[in-house]
């Protein structure tokens, strides 16, 4: 019997599996390519397990411990993993279409080039997570934390990012077209000229923690106090704009100023896009 077959034999029940893992703390199970589709695996201990290319379509792993697990190229379509532990897990090149991760911790996970379209991920932690080139189109990300996450080339088209923390993220070439950015915190975020924010919806946002900018105030120039002066801007490179918020010690490109460079205030752009949103876009999962 192969090692994988031996390990799979222990998966007849979650209780049996967890007891076996507890009795063998130094053993890392090998489950590459196994079919666990539609299984009820709530509370399972998959910490450090190799599930590369596994089929977990429709499976339930609520409250599971998947810290450090390898889900590379796995099929996680419509998987349910509420309140799960996925710290430092690998989910790159995986299919997570319509997956449910509400309340889960994906901090420092690697989720590059993955499909998370229409995923439900409200209240999740993506702190220092690498989401390079992944698709989160129409995903529900309300009240999630992306602090210091890598969002290079990440797509958030028509996603719901209400009250999301985007502090210190690297969002170069990210796409937020049609997204709901109401209540986002964007202190010291980094974007470049390729970051797209067409037709975004936003009632208010926080350029710094506890510093609210209300976009319904009627004052389209209210953001001026946060924008660097012309002399400072002239000293910057063409492809990046240095953060210009007062009292900030973090140096990096700032998308609000980048939009200003293209003769368009962030505030004005959002006000105009609100009219477009209301007439031609239907919010997703709001």
UniProtKB/TrEMBL annotation:
It holds the Pfam family Pentapeptide_4. Coiled coil: none annotated. SUPFAM superfamilies: Pentapeptide repeat-like (SSF141571). PANTHER family: BTB_POZ DOMAIN-CONTAINING PROTEIN KCTD9. This is Pentapeptide repeat-containing protein. It comes from Cyanobacterium stanieri LEGE 03274.
């Amino acid at each position: 019997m192969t090692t994988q077959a031996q390990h799979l034999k222990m998966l007849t029940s979650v209780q049996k599996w967890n007891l076996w893992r507890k009795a063998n703390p130094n053993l890392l199970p090998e489950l590459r390519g196994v079919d666990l589709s539609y299984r009820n695996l709530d509370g399972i201990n998959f910490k450090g397990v190799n599930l590369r290319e596994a089929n977990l379509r429709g499976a339930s792993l609520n409250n599971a411990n998947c810290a450090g697990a390898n889900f590379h190229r796995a099929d996680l379509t419509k998987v349910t993993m509420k309140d799960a532990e996925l710290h430092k897990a690998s989910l790159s090149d995986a299919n997570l279409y319509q997956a449910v991760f509400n309340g889960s911790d994906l901090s420092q996970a690697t989720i590059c080039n993955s499909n998370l379209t229409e995923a439900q991920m409200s209240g999740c932690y993506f702190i220092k997570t690498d989401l390079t080139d992944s698709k989160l189109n129409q995903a529900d990300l309300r009240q999630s934390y992306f602090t210091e996450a890598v969002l290079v080339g990440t797509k958030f088209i028509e996603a719901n990012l209400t009250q999301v923390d985007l502090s210190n993220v690297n969002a170069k070439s990210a796409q937020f077209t049609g997204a709901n950015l109401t209540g986002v915190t964007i202190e010291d975020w980094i974007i470049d000229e390729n970051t797209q924010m067409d037709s975004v919806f936003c009632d208010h946002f926080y350029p710094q923690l506890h510093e609210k900018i209300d976009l319904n105030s009627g004052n389209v120039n209210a953001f001026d106090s946060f924008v660097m002066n012309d002399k400072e801007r002239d000293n910057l490179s063409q492809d990046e704009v240095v953060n210009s918020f007062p009292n900030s010690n973090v140096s990096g490109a700032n998308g609000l100023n980048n939009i200003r460079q293209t003769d368009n205030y962030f505030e004005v752009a959002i006000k105009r896009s609100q009219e477009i949103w209301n007439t031609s876009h239907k919010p997703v999962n709001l």
